[in-house]
Amino acid sequence: KMNILIDEKSGWSLDQLLSTVYKKHSKGECDMVFVDYLQQVRVPRSQNKHEQVSAVSDAMKKLSRDLQIPVIGLAQINRDAEKTNGKDVPPSLIHIKDSGSLEQDADVVMILHRKEDGFDDSYTNIDLRLAKNRHGNVGVCNLRFHHQVCRYTQI
Q: Residues 118-136: pLDDT tens digits?
């Protein structure tokens, strides 16, 4: 059994996020962290978006190591990811928005990509791309997302 805390506040600063996680973890109330999404965490002294995302990425890596818990950071990819050199291509590591530090710091990077040829009102076919795996293989898993029950199944 894992302790899950959902906090829907927006506009978190990096200091607020870290303080909350460390406090909750010390009380046994935090076994895993999801940050949705990394590019929105505020870093007051950063000069630009690249510095901000780099600081958040570095802090999430340190948090995971310090507390020995998984930290999952959701990140946005560039809008033009599917139009590389005029061709339709699935997004990859180079398409992560605002910083190469996310791909550098992460142990695992997974990218969801909706397939244009597989969807209707009840489901959508998705590629789950394991784009980086520091401790194993990379590859693609074909999934189907069932809208009515919010569930992924392997196809």
A: 567 788 899 999 999 999 9
